[in-house]
């Protein structure tokens, strides 16, 4: 659905040093998935998102959405392509002089959708985001979570194929954040819209994403499907999403990180290994969560002594088979 190919965005100002906000980034987002872009403030996440909908034009590289190369379009074609890309903003960006229904209707007015169709679509979207009885309320009369629901409904007004969410939950309290994430996941399941989430919170990615990328200093440091990342030795993203912890000095040479990337996260693997191989493991830390519809986990364990090469090969072969 989205192909970002070697995209760079450089900001330059006369008399000041140029700043490279996005540096040669490439990634692919599959149709219908929820894709998270995780990183600290200043990593370049929002700039990359703004390049995806061409609020920022890349300095170099190409971006294709639903098979259309946005970088090659004239202004009229770009305006038309943008109608298929919805954007949800961190601070809602609602029109305060309009009701919730009026905010949702606004993009359809710009697109010259007939009044009766607008009215029916607004009612449909208010129901979708759980605000059927709040259509006549103004933004000042809505809670933060309700405002973001209006923002999501407005972004869906044009029936987009892509929904871009720029830190859509960072201004909300934890309970409301969970409700909004569950709403986005439900919309993805019910409509098939492809979702890209920008966030600095691992919990957001862990809760609803199918795939993710970790962005650092304007570059993609790691990316992949979450289930693959959990099973990838040394994955930084996996450690952020499912912390196993770090071995202490006395554990070096005998510590293992076990990634359970399938439903065997609830199987007694360690107990069976101790029984079948006569090896006892101490569990130092770990996390087991449900990700992408599966219960997966990562555990930090130690052997009672540094293993011999043959012993370690035997243990890792057994663990790989499980």
The secondary structure category is alpha/beta
Strand-and-helix sequence, N→C? EEEHEEHEHHHEHEHEEHHEHEEH
**Strand order across the biggest sheet?**
6-7-8-3-9-10
The unreliable regions are: none
Tell me, what's the shape? elongated
Bin the strand percentage. Answer: 25-35%
Question: Averaging pLDDT over every residue, what do you get?
Answer: 89
Count the E strands: 13
State the helix count.
11
Portion in helices: 25-40%
Question: Cα distance, first to last residue?
Answer: 34 Å
Query: Strand count, sense and closure of the main sheet?
Result: 6 strands, mixed
Radius of gyration: 23 Å
Secondary-structure blueprint of this entry?
Elements: E1 2-11, E2 19-29, E3 34-38, H1 45-52, E4 60-65, E5 68-69, H2 75-82, E6 85-88, H3 100-110, H4 115-128, H5 144-155, E7 162-166, H6 174-191, E8 194-199, H7 202-208, E9 211-216, E10 219-225, H8 226-230, H9 236-241, E11 255-260, H10 269-277, E12 282-291, E13 294-302, H11 309-321
Parallel strand pairs: 3-8, 3-9, 6-7, 7-8
Antiparallel strand pairs: 1-2, 1-4, 4-5, 9-10, 11-13, 12-13
Helix pairs in contact: 3-4, 3-5, 5-6
Describe this protein's structure.
With 322 residues, the protein is an alpha/beta fold. 34% of the residues lie in helices and 27% in strands. It contains 11 helices and 13 strands. The strands form 3 sheets. It has a 6-stranded mixed β-sheet with strand order 6-7-8-3-9-10, sandwiched between helices. Strands 2-1-4-5 form a 4-stranded antiparallel β-sheet, covered by helices on one side. A 3-stranded antiparallel β-sheet has the order 11-13-12. The mean pLDDT is 89.
């Amino acid at each position: 659905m989205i192909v970002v190919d070697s995209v760079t965005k450089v900001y330059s100002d006369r008399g000041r040093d140029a700043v490279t906000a996005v540096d040669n980034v490439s990634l692919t987002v599959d149709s219908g998935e929820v894709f998270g872009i995780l990183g600290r403030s200043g990593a370049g996440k929002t700039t990359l998102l703004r390049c995806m909908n061409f609020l920022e034009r890349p300095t170099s590289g190409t971006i294709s959405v639903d098979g259309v190369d946005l970088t090659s379009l004239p202004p009229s074609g770009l305006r038309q392509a943008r109608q298929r890309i919805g954007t949800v903003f961190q601070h809602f960006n609602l029109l305060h002089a309009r009701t919730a229904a009026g905010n949702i209707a606004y993009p359809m007015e710009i697109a010259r959708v007939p009044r009766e169709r607008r009215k029916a679509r607004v009612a449909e979207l208010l129901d979708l985001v759980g605000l059927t009885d709040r259509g006549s309320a103004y933004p000042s009369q809505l809670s933060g979570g309700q405002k973001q629901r209006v923002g999501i409904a407005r972004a869906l007004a044009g029936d987009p194929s892509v929904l871009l969410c720029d830190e859509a939950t960072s201004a909300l309290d934890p309970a409301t954040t969970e409700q909004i994430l569950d709403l986005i996941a439900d919309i993805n399941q019910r409509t098939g819209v492809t979702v890209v989430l920008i966030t600095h919170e691992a919990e957001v990615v862990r809760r609803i994403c199918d795939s993710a990328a970790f962005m650092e200093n304007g570059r993609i440091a790691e990316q992949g499907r979450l289930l693959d990342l959990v099973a990838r030795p040394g994955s930084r993203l996996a450690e952020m999403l499912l912390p196993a912890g770090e071995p202490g000095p006395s554990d070096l040479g005998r510590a293992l990180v076990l990634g359970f990337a399938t439903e065997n996260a609830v199987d007694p693997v360690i107990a069976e290994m101790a029984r079948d191989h006569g090896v006892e493991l101490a569990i130092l830390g770990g996390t087991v969560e449900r990700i992408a519809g599966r219960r997966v986990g990562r555990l930090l364990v130690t052997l009672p002594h540094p293993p011999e090469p043959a012993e370690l090969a035997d243990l890792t072969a057994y663990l790989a088979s499980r």
